[in-house]
């Protein structure tokens, strides 16, 4: 292999950490979505409570879920994701459009 | 003909043309044609990246098919559609920086380039190219049919004429502009989609007399419509949850999406794209499907699901505004088709032609081949879409799940698991696609899960086991990677 992508590069450590954050987010997202939808939505429809006109399960699971996930993604990216250069130590002859 | 609806469409098409012409300047100026034509020279910023990912992902089904199903199924389908929310952040986080760095190290222009350098195997390349060409070709043709039907229903032109208009519009800007034109038009189309969705949602709620009113009318008609279980109680929690694999996390395996994860400029662009695309994907999916459900109260009794959206738009908005809004689904279709077209073309030119047919091709020959291949594919798809053969419709059913089952593990494990090798990748691709087709044909929703789940699990197991076993029997191979690493340290 010409270029090893498993070498000890500190950037890979950062990348790996961010993968775990992504997995964590998706698990949280799923639990939130599933928990509210089926937790509140499994009773007969005539016993539903309503928020802004929407059935509560739908409001929490889908609408609030979207808002919470957006805020969470924003926070995580702003505070936990690190900016790393992508090609500083690489030499390649072909112009790849770096300005 | 309804000119108030048609004029915005024409303006929209003219704008996309001019983007193609603009991007062509870069194509003719560049000193690395392949990088520019198939990857836009890795210069995408955050906003464009987010929009092109979202627009490529959101296709005819998000704007036409999906709301149509929501119309008959109720809020349960909106819940299901929210399984797509992770697609907004998960892909870029999982492939993330490692993929961006690896793609640059390997000088990869296509997903297959990456696989080729990672596995150093001709069979991995050929299998991947084959799956991309077959699956995406049929997916593309199906989208063209959708695009033509939409133009047909909006303008009253015949299907053939509509298809011709659609084909010419897409082909012109893709052929002359390449990836940069695709990404830029995606950004415009994505913006149109977002704003269009927003306006339509408001107009629909107003027309229905407010959310409470709409919901109570739905509940009176059939209480199941406002439960998570679907109009007939057909949506089980397990089945709905399995869509998280198909349309949420599994999207990591779609080549048209992964190629975008190697096209951005820097980490900042990636960070911004993650935030923007989460909000955009989430909002559009939520709103469009919700609109579909609400439409049931406003225009009851629509028999054909695909007609719900166009009819609703014309019903709740003045004609000129409807014309503008209805460019959104057309934009969604075009932005998906253009990406697939450039991807299939890159698979043929870069992955097959340059690798195995004519490695010593000159810059000029590559250029001719790229323009030529893109044109020929376009014409072929056009002919196919004129009267779609059954095989194509059949293949299209597999395209999404089939590609995911083929690529997800060779990409992810290839990126993060040192011991993964070419035997694992080949076995996983064959088992993934094979089991997908078998399960789909003979078992349907096995164990009450969507068809895609079992093949994705199987291909993972096969990848890991095959890699471990072949590493053991061919001990040299593992050591190679390790010793190489120690040498470097």
UniProtKB/TrEMBL annotation, chain A:
<keyword id="KW-1133">Transmembrane helix</keyword>
<feature type="transmembrane region" description="Helical">
    <location>
        <begin position="57"/>
        <end position="81"/>
    </location>
</feature>
<dbReference type="InterPro" id="IPR010398">
    <property type="entry name" value="DUF997"/>
</dbReference>
<keyword id="KW-0472">Membrane</keyword>
<feature type="transmembrane region" description="Helical">
    <location>
        <begin position="20"/>
        <end position="37"/>
    </location>
</feature>
<protein>
    <submittedName>
        <fullName>YhdT family protein</fullName>
    </submittedName>
</protein>
<dbReference type="Pfam" id="PF06196">
    <property type="entry name" value="DUF997"/>
</dbReference>
<keyword id="KW-0812">Transmembrane</keyword>
